[in-house]
Amino acid sequence: MGAVAINRKRSEESLNFNQQSTGTFRNSPYFQASKKRRFFFGMSEDSAKPASSSNPTISRISRYPDAKAPLRRQIHAPSRGILRYGSARSSVPKPNDYNGNDEIASGSFIARKYDDAKRTALNTLRFHTKDVEVVDLGDELDKEAVSEDSSVEEIEVVDCDEDEILVEENKIFQPSPSTCDVIKGNNLRVDDTSMMLDSLSIDRDVNDASSLEAYKKLLESAEKRNSKLEALGFEIVLNEKRLEQLRLSRPKPVEKRAEVPLEPFIPLTEDEEAEVYSAFSGRNRSKVLATHENSNIDITGKVLRCLTPSSWLNDEVINVYLELLKERETREPKKYLKCHFFSTFFYKKLVSESGYNYKAVRRWTLQKKLGYALIDCDMIFVPIHRGVHWTLAVINNKDSKFLYLDSLNGVDPMILNALAKYLGDEAKEKSGKNIDVSSWGMEFVEDLPQQQNGYDCGMFMLKYIDFFSRGLGLCFSQEHMPYFRLRTAKEILRLRAD
């Protein structure tokens, strides 16, 4: 009895469970009843039903008939058609293809599947606007869209047939002929990136990630090309600079130097050198070695010693030498320029501590005294003493300009301005002419021989005057100064400039 009770209880629980589970899942769209009908051989369906029995378990089982399949066995998911560009060749089943009272739940399931299939088909289409030309770039943009060695860009696209259609929800459009004209064969060829960007019409209403990615890749390809062009341009500039450097590095033809005249550099004879060294000796310090009568200047041994090496030149030696240069010009006027040589005291009188004073020097250039007008000279030389340094100012009437020469490359505009004012006053006072000196140039000569010590400035100034009066360029240097000292001493002792 215990075993029978246990089996009975277990049978009832299993029946209750089957009944509950069948009632629960019957209304589910995922429930499908058994598709096979039970067949009873040798008897009819009605006679197959078990007879009522006194056994309560058997009678209870007999009250539950076999479940019948409410639907025929069919595929409830829509078959995915072959979707190509601009077309949908598969037919999608619709919910109203199914009938039956128990088919309402299954209809909602099929409707969801239909919506999913339709959404998948629409997402498959890249562009679905009738008025926009569509190009599907596909997966070929994973490759290089632009060839590195060619300006022709190739992009793989899907063939377009005129009978293909675009499906957008429940609407059907025929593709525009311009779309098929753009796409020819399997390759789309354009001449440059700008035409490619123009050929791709992106619908702003459609946020398609693949189209944006394609556009970015096209921009990247254009940027790559721009970088290559920039690199080529840089190489061109670099090669041009290298070519210019090669041209500069080529040996230049040797320029023939101007022939140095012999007269300013005639070496002294042994007798002349002995005479000069004797004048420099100590026993002749107080002895008058030479007297210039026109200027009334006596040259003693002590005065002449300023021409020894490492000595500063004094006023007496400078003024006597300038008088000798004027006499040289008088002897041979055709050989030398017509010049006037002011003494070292002229500028001190013209520009004193009280300022510019023309009256102080007005009688220095009387025509009765000089025998010529100052404005008729080619050059006028004005020695300038600046404490411990000698410089030279030149009034160049021949070229209508004022020059300033400093062996230390100094500059002083005030000196030239004072001389410009003096020339105007002198021309008006002596010749009654008005000279517009405002149009004259003022030049601080830089390309000239420079002194390399602190005591040869006076000697450089004298040689500037000597070479200019000869009409020569300044073709000497610091190394010639010892020779020029001896030669100047010899010319002063003999009172004749060569």
TrEMBL record:
Gene3D superfamilies: Adenoviral Proteinase, Chain A (3.40.395.10). Keywords: Hydrolase, Protease, Thiol protease, Ubl conjugation pathway. One of its GO terms (biological process) is proteolysis. One of its GO terms (molecular function) is cysteine-type peptidase activity. Residues 297-468 form the Ubiquitin-like protease family profile domain. SUPFAM superfamilies: Cysteine proteinases (SSF54001). Transmembrane segments: none annotated. It comes from the Eukaryota. Belongs to the peptidase C48 family. This is Ubiquitin-like-specific protease ESD4.
